[in-house]
């Protein structure tokens, strides 16, 4: 029994990977479209007016900023270590 590697192994594997990649692309596009619509609705609800928009932007920026760190060169005053 002779196995033709190209037609019985390589072609089905490459074809299966191609179909899999196409499915991933379709799923990715669908999820992005769903997320965009929900995000727009959420932003419209939260920041419906300019005042609400400024408040929401300030809150989001304040909660997403990293904590400030002290540099290694700054030292505490001598009286603080006692």
UniProtKB/TrEMBL annotation:
Tree of life domain: Bacteria
Gene Ontology process terms (BP): sodium-dependent phosphate transport
Principal localisation: membrane
Keyword Zinc: no
Transmembrane segment boundaries: 6-24
Localization annotation: Cell membrane
This protein's UniProt keywords: Cell membrane, Membrane, Transmembrane, Transmembrane helix
One Pfam family, short name: Na_Pi_cotrans
Entry GO terms, CC: plasma membrane
Region (Disordered): 59-82
InterPro entries found in the cross-reference section: Na/Pi_transpt
GO molecular function terms noted in the UniProt entry: sodium:phosphate symporter activity
Record membrane topology: Multi-pass membrane protein
Descriptive protein name: Na+/Pi-cotransporter
